[in-house]
């Protein structure tokens, strides 16, 4: 990539639409949308990057993700390919995209079960549980979601792995034991190995 191409890339990535948002900006955006959801009778919970922030991993995110039971009576900025809509709201003097996820594909049952197990925090926010967040990240298969998954599994006393397996069995039944659970066991082992290496390196 030459200097001119790099300059164009930097300019494109400097637009407000692509800038990462802070946890506080994301929560302002979320709290703008939540009253609409409450008034419409929609069940909802925070997920995605802001949920990851609230669990302690401050990685870049450019929007706010919700998992919900139904769409909202708001102007849609476009449909999500897997089910749901995007909305825009103002927070900290900028427009923030809110992805309102209502899955209508083969992963729908996972998301519905995750929503049923949402955790109500002391400040009144419903948030996806750590166990379901790992499962959702695994289903996504994107690189950034893999990194989130590994961080969640490495965090001390955050993810109850036995409960995670119970959730999988609830959705998948017996076939979870033969196909999916062994895959998750490999993720557990990998996270443990990385954590061991990190801990060992501190004493080298």
Would you give an account of this structure?
- This protein is an alpha+beta fold.
- The protein has 8 helices and 7 strands; from the N terminus they run ααβαββββαββαααα.
- The protein has helices at residues 3-12, 23-40, 48-54, 108-116, 130-140, 143-154, 161-172, 175-201, and strands at 44-47, 63-68, 78-79, 84-91, 94-101, 119-120, 126-127.
- Helix 5 (130-140) crosses helix 7 (161-172).
- The protein is globular, with a radius of gyration of 18 Å.
- It starts with a helix and ends with a helix.
Quick summary:
The protein has 204 residues and is α+β, with helices and mostly antiparallel strands.
Please outline the helices and strands.
Elements (H helix, E strand, L loop, with lengths): L2 H10 L10 H18 L3 E4 H7 L8 E6 L9 E2 L4 E8 L2 E8 L6 H9 L2 E2 L5 E2 L2 H11 L2 H12 L6 H12 L2 H27 L3
Helix pairs in contact: 5-6, 5-7, 6-8, 7-8
The number of helical runs is 8
The description of the largest β-sheet is: 5 strands, mixed
Order of helices and strands: HHEHEEEEHEEHHHH
Strands side by side in the biggest sheet? 1-2-5-4-3
Please mark out the parts with pLDDT under 50 across 5 or more consecutive residues, or reply none.
none
- Tell me how many strands there are: 7
Average residue-wise pLDDT: 91
Structural class: alpha+beta
Question: What helical percentage do the residues reach?
Answer: 40-55%
Shape: globular
How far from one another are the termini?
Answer: 38 Å
Strand content: 15-25%
Radius of gyration: 18 Å
